[in-house]
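Any chance you could type out some protein's one-letter sequence along with its backbone structure tokens so I can compare the two?
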Amino acid sequence: MSRIGPLVALIVFLSVPVCAQDDPRRPSLAGPLTVFAGAAAADWATTYYVLHQGGHEQNPLLSPAHSQPLPTVALGVAIDVVGAWVWVHYVGRSHPRLAAMGLYVMAGFRAGLAVHNAGEVR
């Protein structure tokens, strides 16, 4: 694996905040959102680097800008922000634990993509 793999892992694991929750019956989603944001940032950073080296984005939602690194990442980040907001707003209000679990699952998926991208770096 290249040098970027450990860096991606470090970014994801350092994004976990240490914070106290005010109400144990209603867990805060700040921690899970931070973990998701860190994993997504690692994924987009590695995606940008791979695209900049001549790679290709495989996500069909990003096909309008798949060959240009900056527009691809900008569109992807916008999709992530809207998706996270919708998830927290609609699921997090009535089911905060489910919302937290979903954010952790999404973070794990994005961390996997970042590690995959790191393996693509030439």
Observations:
- Residues 4-13+27-120 form one domain.
